[in-house]
Each structure stands twice: as C-alpha cells, then as structure tokens.
Amino acid sequence: MIIESKDDVLSLSGSLHKNQWMTIKAASNLLLQDHPQGVIVSCEHLEEISGDGAKTFLDAMRDIEAANARIIVSNLPDNVLAVIKTIPGVRSQLPIAGSVEEARASLRVASRKMPPPAYTGTGKRTQVIVVPLLADVDLSYGAALAARVAKPGRSEVRLIYFMEVGRNLPLNAPLLAEEQAASAALARAKELFKGADAPLYEHIEKVREASDGMMTAIKNYGAEILVFGAGENLIEGEDANEAFHALVDKLLYRAPCEVIVGRLKATN
C-alpha cells in the first residue's frame, strides 16, 4: 500500500491486506497540525482490501475522534465498500463521502467548536443561555429573546443547531445539504441577535434525538437558561406547531434549568 499526503487529504492506493493504522498514523498527526478540524482519507486508488485491512479505519476513527477531530473517508470503490460493510463497528460508524470536495465541505461547515464557559471580571462564571435550532421547526426567534434576556458583561449565548441523524448512519456522517441548511439557519438567527451586548457562540451538534441533545448541551455547558422562540411558521403551520409543542412539553419537564418560551407577535 502507498500512502500520500497533500494539503488536507491522505490518499491510499494499492492493496490493504492488514491493519496499517500505525503506519498511517504519523502522516495523519502531521496533517492534523495544519488541519485540526479533521482528516480526509481518499481511497480512489485503493484496489482491494481485506477484513483485517478494513480495521485500519476503525483504529483511525478511535484515535482521531479521541483528539476531538473528525475523519471522513471518500471515493470508496464498490469492491472496497462491500468489504467494509461486512466488518462490525466499521460499517456502522465510518463516515463516508462521495468525494473529497464533499468531505471537505462537511468538515468546514461542522468544524466550529464551543469554548468552555467564560468568567466575568469579578471572577464569577458567566450565565450561559442556550438557544436551540432545528430543521423544519423555526426556533430562530429565540436569538432575539436571548438578546433581551442576556445581561451585559455577565451572560453568554450559545446558539446550537441540533441536527438529527438517523440511526442507520454514523453520527458524524457527512450530510452536506443538511449541514448547509444548518449554517443558513444559524446565520438567520445571528441576524436577530445583532446589537446585543453579550458574546455569541454558534455550533452544529449532530444528535440522534433533539431533546436528548439539548439535555446534554445544558449539562455540558452548565446552562442556566434555555430559550425557545417560535418563528412565523410556528404561528401558522399546524405540523410545525405539533413538533414545537411536543419538544417544549418534554423540555419543560426534563430541563434542569430555567426554560423561556416565546413567539413572534401574530400579524393578523
């Protein structure tokens, strides 16, 4: 097997008949120094692979994710993919993209990391306000509510898009269309937060269930307030209303913090 490294991509070619992760690891570590968001492994020229060889990707996932980075494998030939699908752990966890460009775009969109909660000038930890966003449920008004609730110099707002990933896919699977939609939703919400005297952090979090993801975020960031803000489609759309109310009901009972729910003023 031949290993080549260029820019943000490790390219494998030839045959992979045994676990070669320790051979690849040094090149991967060098790549992560310049591209800490993650590693792209291109298999376009990989001719054949064995079951032991496929375990290379399992060890790679474990090491790279332990370093708080991502790995995405791209350009898998059909015969190689067929072998990978037979290996437990690899077939269910390996994030796969159709091309290097798709993998790169996914890493770029989802590479934002949340810093730990900060401290005020008096040495007290800032008040953390979490504003969740979801696909098909317009919660963007929460950013405007958070801007009003945040205390200058004492609060910080964490705008988190919770992207639900089906259980038939790895949690870190590249989902370019969904990730682009998430970025657009974050951008719209940020516009509503403009002018607020508080730091704003944004992040895309991939989860199996949105409500469980929110509970984890509350715990991880020590959130004191969770803000739900219903946008225009939640005022008029019955389906969106049903999803919104179900989520709010669940969090009102489960969230170990203050929950603020509001909506835009109806126009008629």
Q: Given the structure, what is the number of helices?
A: 10
| CATH class category name of the largest domain | Alpha Beta
With strands numbered from the N-terminus, the spatial order across the biggest sheet is 1-2-3-4-5
pLDDT < 50 stretches = none
Please give the domain count: 2
The portion of residues forming beta strands comes to: 25-35%
Mean pLDDT: 87
> Could you say what the CATH topology of the largest domain is called?
Rossmann fold
Task: Describe this structure in a few short sentences.
This protein is an alpha/beta fold. It is built from 10 helices and 10 strands.
Characterization of this structure:
It is a single chain. By secondary structure, the protein is of the alpha/beta class. It folds into two domains: 2-109, 2-Layer Sandwich (Transcription Regulator spoIIAA), CATH 3.30.750; 127-263, Rossmann fold (3-Layer(aba) Sandwich). It is built from ten helices and ten strands. It has a five-stranded mixed beta sheet with strand order 1-2-3-4-5. Strands 8-7-6-9-10 form a five-stranded parallel beta sheet, with helices on both faces. Helix 6 (141-149) links the parallel strand 6 and strand 7. Helix 5 (100-109) packs parallel to helix 7 (176-193) and helix 8 (210-221) packs across helix 10. The longest helix is centred in the C-terminal third of the chain and has 18 residues, at 176-193. The radius of gyration is 21 Å and the shape is elongated.
Topology:
Layout: E1 2-6, E2 9-16, H1 21-34, E3 38-49, H2 51-66, E4 70-74, H3 78-84, H4 90-93, E5 96-97, H5 100-109, E6 127-133, H6 141-149, E7 155-164, H7 176-193, E8 200-207, H8 210-221, E9 225-230, H9 232-236, H10 238-254, E10 258-263
Parallel strand pairs: 2-3, 3-4, 4-5, 6-7, 6-9, 7-8, 9-10
Antiparallel strand pairs: 1-2
Helix pairs in contact: 5-7, 6-7, 8-10
